[in-house]
Write a structure and sequence with these properties.
758 residues; alpha/beta; seven-stranded parallel β-sheet; three-stranded mixed β-sheet; globular
Length: 758
């Protein structure tokens, strides 16, 4: 009863915990009678208390029960005897009436491959409360007398008798379970439909061998991982040219060198080449200074002409990813860049283009999203919408706002604002006043353009400026690039890596980071649609898809549109993702000492309706605290007592409002069959490296052991204003004469120092 009580005591919500505890009390009273009637019935009856508990929760709580309850109670002498048998190579099977969620970690701890235990039936990831046959019943009431032996071995005949299986000995073999965590289903069939190009065979290494690739956006999260993925797995690639914008004080070449010296993404290459990594990169990688938002990609005529002759592929992974940026910046990054890329592509002899967009350009609509590129697309289905006319209209609006920002009337108002009430212009130095005035003017223009862009985006059916301008960029590629070899790639929400460059790499404050951080605090109720899919995909899975698409574009076997997503093939809904996030935080807090972590362990976020959220969560709390602060002002207190708490609640409220289109509205399901078709065409020897298989992702393991720990390591410190863990920059030899020797040897010298990271 104790492990079942542990499961019921740690349910997700407070109401569920107390309801299950009440059931446990009733069970304790009725247990002796059920046990006397039938030990098998008593076991089945006990586990009905777990009806409705998710398999994810039982798996984590089972691990927790083993590590913190069962493991400390193991007798050292008996443990040593068992380990001795394992070392001898004896074939051992653990047998117990515990659930497999507890016995599996126990078997793994001892290195035992098989066990027999009770198993619950699950439907849609939740327990039905029914035990699967055969049921492992408790031993007899006097078994404890004979159970004190340190040697737990038991004969097959005696075991069958104790389990009540003497008449059906075949049950023993059928009840065996593996101690390995069940793997996700793989190898799902894929079929080519419509006018998608048929690809019988696609070898990545043969196609990309000796090819010249221009990569735009290597300083970003996806760009860095894809570059490293290519260098590690396609060693015969000809040349990779990186287009990097110069900073005010740092050249493009130096920016790349700093990335190599400091970024954890290059750890694998560092281990392979050691200090000769710099020379290897100098041989394979070229850096050119430029800006994709400028005509000619910001390159001089000589560089353009040289690249135009040799390039086989241009990859654009650059783009502004803020949800609601300055409209000028969004147009320059997400629209102007596509126009300049098209102009450059027409100058090239044979280059194709792979352009990264986002699945969420579909905007505020529901249903299945196919992999088709629509000209002049807008979610509101306005028949009069024209993308080019819309872009011109936005530029006119920007011009009007900039013109008004310089008007005498606004200048006068901004000057009054800078001086404050009753301010004396003579008392403020002219230079200082001009500086404040200039900053206020820039802020006014930006705020006006952000609001105008958001209004226009929502009017046309997009949730924010980012998806609005990304879609306009797609429309330009569709309209003006019909005769060019172009593939548009739409990833969904790109998150922590599963294996490349290493498991658990993330960078910056990414899409899900702030929300998952909030779910790790005492925040309780998140307004969401439980059934809505949260389409998350690991960054290295995206990069494998990009490599396949790059090969298809060079081979001229590509479709026009590829979606790299999971919701159609391996969905995880909002209800499950919220619970997995809470369980991952629980696993972390369980290991931490202190009362603060113990409290957080008890608070798990639950999905609620928007109405309940407004009535019982942040909006209500904020209104209550605001009333206290207003009362303090009325009482002429020097400082509002809860000003900080009001600010924090305001930030959390804005954050949830920002994420509502992704967690509450718009039930999207993104198809990804085009990339899976390319994956199916890989030769067998390349599939383990380049296969695009989102169906293989085990969400429980990914969320609890990879993704949330990665956010906690790489992203949460930035949100809290703390520095990331300190690392010594790797020392590199950038000379070229040692690169070939290193490439031949394929590994670093033992004396080479190794450098070890959303």
């Amino acid at each position: 009863m104790r492990p079942v009580g542990f499961f019921t005591w740690n349910a997700q919500s407070f109401a569920e915990r107390w309801a299950r505890r009440a059931g446990m009390a009733v069970m304790a009273l009725s247990r002796p009678f059920a046990y006397a009637a039938s030990r098998t019935f008593a076991t089945r009856f006990l586990h009905t208390l777990l009806r409705g508990v998710s398999q994810d929760r039982l798996d984590l709580l089972g691990e927790e029960y083993f590590h913190y309850v069962l493991k400390p109670a193991l007798r050292s002498e008996a443990t040593e005897k068992l380990l001795e048998a394992v070392r001898k190579g004896d074939q051992i099977v653990l047998v117990g009436q515990l659930l497999d969620h507890i016995l599996r970690p126990l078997a793994s701890h001892f290195g035992i491959e098989s066990f027999i235990s009770n198993r619950l039936e699950f439907r849609d990831g939740h327990a039905t409360g029914r035990l699967l046959s055969p049921v492992v019943r408790p031993r007899g009431p006097f078994a404890w007398i004979a159970g004190g032996s340190l040697d737990g071995r038991i004969s097959e005949k005696k075991l069958l008798h104790q389990l009540g299986w003497s008449k059906t000995p075949e049950r023993l073999e059928s009840a065996l379970q593996s101690s390995a965590h069940p793997a996700a289903l793989t190898g799902r069939a894929v079929a080519a439909l419509g006018d998608v190009p048929r690809v019988d065979r696609l070898s990545v290494r043969e196609t990309l061998g000796n090819r010249h690739i221009l990569l735009v956006g290597v300083t970003g999260f996806i760009g860095k991982v894809w570059l490293v993925d290519l260098l590690e797995n396609v060693s015969n690639v000809g040349k990779i040219t990186l287009l990097i914008r110069r900073n005010r004080t740092t050249s493009a070449q130096r920016r790349f060198e700093k990335i190599v010296e400091e970024s954890p993404t290059f750890d694998g290459l560092q281990e392979r080449y050691g200090r000769r990594l710099g020379a290897f990169l100098k041989e394979k990688v070229e850096v050119v200074e430029g800006d994709v938002s400028q005509p000619g990609l910001g390159m001089d005529e000589i560089t353009q002409a040289r690249l135009a002759k040799s390039l086989d592929l241009v990859v654009n992974s650059a783009g502004l990813t803020d949800f609601n940026p300055d409209l000028r910046e969004a147009l320059a990054s997400n629209v102007d860049s596509t126009l300049h890329l098209l102009d450059f592509l027409r100058k090239c002899n044979r280059a194709g283009l792979m352009h990264l967009s986002t699945c969420y350009v579909v905007g505020m609509r529901d249903g299945r999203v196919d992999e088709e590129l629509h000209d002049n697309y807008n979610p509101a289905s306005d028949p009069d919408f024209d993308a080019e006319r819309e872009i011109d209209s936005l530029r006119e609006m920007i011009g009007r706002v900039e013109e008004r920002s310089q008007s005498p009337e606004l200048t006068k108002a901004l000057r009054r604002q800078a001086l404050g009430r009753g301010g004396d212009p003579a008392a403020v130095p002219a230079v200082e006043l001009d500086g404040v005035l200039k900053r206020n003017r820039v802020r006014w223009s930006r705020n006006r353009l952000v609001r105008a862009g958001m209004r226009r985006a929502k009017h046309l059916g997009w949730p924010n400026i980012y998806t609005f301008t990304k879609s306009l960029g797609e429309s330009m590629l569709s309209r003006r690039g019909r005769d060019l070899p172009i593939a548009i790639v739409r990833p969904s929400i790109v998150e922590s890596s599963t294996r490349s460059p290493f498991a658990g790499w993330n960078e910056g404050i990414n899409t899900s980071g702030p929300l998952s951080y909030l779910l790790g605090t005492n925040f309780r109720q998140l307004p969401t649609n439980e059934r809505k899919c949260l389409d998350v995909i690991p960054v290295d899975m995206v990069c494998r898809g990009m490599t396949l698409i790059a090969a298809a574009v060079i081979a001229r076997k590509n479709a026009r549109m590829y979606q790299l997503a999971t919701s159609a093939i391996n969905p995880v809904n909002m209800g499950r993702s919220i619970e997995l996030t809470g369980l991952a935080h629980r696993k972390y807090y369980r290991r931490q000492p202190g009362f603060e972590h113990w409290i957080k362990l008890k608070f798990e976020t639950i999905p609620v309706s928007k109405q309940r959220y407004e009535r019982m969560s942040i909006p209500m709390q904020k209104a209550f605290i605001s009333s206290i602060n207003r009362a303090a002002v009325t009482l002429h207190m020097k400082k509002a007592p809860l000003a900080r708490q009001e600010r924090d609640l305001g930030r959390a409220e804005k954050l949830i409002e920002l994420y509502e289109p992704f967690i509450l509205h718009n039930e999207h399901v993104f198809e990804c069959e085009n990339a899976r078709l390319l994956s199916a065409a890989l030769p067998p020897e390349e599939r383990p490296i380049f296969e695009f298989d989102p169906e293989s992702i085990d969400w429980w393991n990914y969320w609890i052991n990879i993704h949330i720990p990665a956010l906690r390591r790489w992203c949460y410190p930035l949100m809290e204003g703390r520095p990331l863990e300190s690392r010594t920059p790797r020392e590199l030899d950038w000379s070229t004469h040692t690169a070939r020797a290193s490439a031949v040897s394929g590994s670093a010298s033992p004396s080479d120092p190794l450098w070890r990271s959303s």
